[in-house]
Specification:
Elements: E1 5-12, E2 23-27, E3 32-39, H1 43-59, H2 67-79, E4 87-89, E5 104-106, H3 115-133, H4 136-141, E6 147-149, H5 152-156, H6 158-168, E7 172-174, H7 181-192
Parallel strand pairs: 6-7
Antiparallel strand pairs: 1-3, 2-3, 4-5
Helix pairs in contact: 2-3, 3-6
Amino acid sequence: IGTSAQAVLLRERREQETPGGAVTAVPYFGGCDILVAASLNGGNVIAKFVELLDSWSRELGGSDFEKESVYERLIDSGMRSLGTDLSVSPVLFGERHSPGMKASVCNIVAGNLSLGCVSSALCRGVVENLATIMPPDTVRSRGVLRLIGCGSVLERNKLVQEHLKRVYELPISLAGPDTSAALGASIAMFKETSDITC
């Protein structure tokens, strides 16, 4: 999860099951395919929320604020509100499989409008949106025992990490600092020279 969000599973190519929906099967090394669920909404949605807060602050007569400190406060306050019943569907940018999708906020009550509740619901919404494309049951039914995460949002945002663990009901290991799709491609090329099993 970085600017956008993706989930990927490996499968043997001989499996005839068509992924369907928003999941794409892409040929991979060693007679395997990767099933790719790609969302247009990830860290870009959280960044838009921070921009909104900055804009509101200036409109109310405040000054620009340090965005890094805002992210830290959003994460910290969101971690204290993990159980909020506020619900955010954060599809600000639509989705490839449904470009007309719109974002929404549901279940608003007087007690869940704190910054922590909104932050937690937004981060959970990013993960839940990915889970609608690559459902947790599908992931677990394929024998996945842990998630390996990479991307700037997962590296820096423990709130997204926590919601990822909760939604997928699996532990998560981070691939390491500064990991990206480029690293994944490099690893794939390295593994191409060795035996790969699906």
